[in-house]
Design goal:
The protein starts with a helix and ends with a helix. Helices cover 75% and strands 0% of the residues. The chain is mostly helical.
Length: 418
């Protein structure tokens, strides 16, 4: 019989969030033997959150906190962050904020906690509060000290204070030159500053709408939302009737957490199309829904994504968007029903819909049914890597579960960990 230390190290070596079903089987087996392990309960919380099993995730984290307190130890501040994460992912930003603030009280010198709180406020669109918070952690002694600078740069970029944003991103990279997100954001900011210096809109030299669009399209870059906003605005100043560019402008503004402007642009896109006598365009509805989802307003997001389903019911993509929102919300039965509708569509990616049904069944511990869905996805696209990985996960989890049930008394848990 392995000791606690050996069993714990063995469990941590094979712990993988990329194999949640298998890891869950092993963690449960370990905790049956060692139910007082606060560390494993704290690891279990984020794993369950990733599967949208929020009540269980919070119970696991609460157990970890209780065990630490019973031992006379202060709970780790990061446990409170993980508790907040479970609410943030479920769209309950106010409760997430409360947990992050409790974490900050326990770990005021931890840069990672400042980043988590700043990230939530930025995504929520509360840019003033995010900036005020992120200006404070300059004396942090623990955590990734580059991350608050990166987050501050994002806030400044969203507020179109590009010179300040450039300095913040540079400070982040000075602390960690490998921060690829800061590199990408810095490239966006520097491109904006360069175009501003060149005065990108020369009002004295008008060009045709076709030429203007070609110039915008050639300069467009998916990883540069601030730059793309400038490009779209310059084009719309000359061609304000383009509903497709209003749509793109709304998407880019949403990525910058500037939701009021984003939704105004998206409403303009919808109105212009209607004025042309065109049928509703699902892309505008999806983008509107995504702007609300990103800001944590899942009710409004569902309303707009449902409009997209009504607009193009034969496209698997709109069912997948709405199903993904419902699954992240923890509404598994509604999510499965929506994805199953997607599997029957003639357009789009029904294999992705099958994959997503499988993910929900995996989160419900219905491993055999889950495997069948992944197999259906692979029957459509045999090179679907995500479905291959998920199928491998549930297959191994099923095998470990059966081995545990078949093991001799007293050996079941050890067999499951193996």
């Amino acid at each position: 019989m392995r000791s606690y230390s050996d069993s714990y190290l063995r469990l941590m070596r094979v712990w993988s969030r990329d194999q949640p079903a298998t890891t869950l089987v092993r963690a449960r087996a370990f905790l049956r033997r060692f139910p007082q392990s606060a560390n494993v309960w704290s690891h279990l919380g984020p794993l369950l959150t990733s599967m949208a099993r929020y009540a269980e995730a919070r119970s696991a984290l609460a157990t970890s906190i209780r065990l630490e307190v019973e031992r006379g130890k202060a709970p780790a501040a990061w446990t409170y962050v993980m508790m907040g994460d479970s609410f943030e992912q479920a769209g309950d930003f106010p409760t997430a904020l409360a947990w992050y603030r409790r974490a900050l009280e326990l770990g005021a010198d931890d840069a990672d906690i400042h980043f988590a709180l700043g990230y939530l406020l930025h995504r929520w669109g509360r840019l003033d509060e995010a900036e005020e918070l992120l200006r404070k952690p300059r004396q942090c002694t623990t955590g990734d000290r580059d991350e608050p600078w990166y987050m501050l740069g994002l806030v400044q970029r969203s507020r179109e204070r590009f010179a300040e944003a450039e300095r913040s991103f540079r400070k982040a990279l000075k602390l960690d030159a490998r921060n690829f997100r800061a590199k990408r954001a810095l490239a966006d900011t520097r491109t904006v500053l360069a175009r501003q210096r060149r005065q990108i809109v020369d009002r004295g030299n008008a060009v045709s709408s076709a030429t203007a669009y070609e110039q915008m399209d050639q300069a467009w870059h998916d990883d540069k939302p601030a730059h793309n906003v400038l490009l779209a605005r310059a084009y719309l100043a000359q061609c304000p009737w383009s509903f497709s560019v209003w749509l793109e402008l709304g998407i880019e503004l949403s990525a910058l957490s500037r939701y009021d402007e984003a939704r105004e642009a998206l409403h303009t896109s919808i109105r212009l199309r209607e004025e042309l006598g065109e049928s509703p365009y699902r892309g505008s509805y999806v983008a509107m829904g995504e702007s609300y989802r990103r800001a944590g307003d899942y009710e409004s997001a569902r309303t707009w994504l449902a409009k997209a389903v009504e607009a193009e019911p034969e496209d698997a993509g709109v069912h997948i968007f709405l199903g993904a929102l419902l699954a992240k919300w923890g509404r598994f039965e509604e999510a499965k029903a929506m994805h199953r509708r997607g599997t029957a569509c003639e357009e789009g990616l029904p294999d992705e819909a099958w994959h997503n049904v499988g993910l929900i069944l995996r989160a419900q511990d219905r491993l055999v049914e889950s495997a069948e869905c992944f197999e259906r996805a692979l029957a459509i696209d045999c090179n679907y890597t995500a479905a291959q990985d998920a199928l491998a996960d549930v297959t191994l989890a099923t095998r470990l579960t059966r081995r545990r049930h078949a093991a001799r008394p007293g050996r079941a848990d050890l067999a499951a960990i193996g």
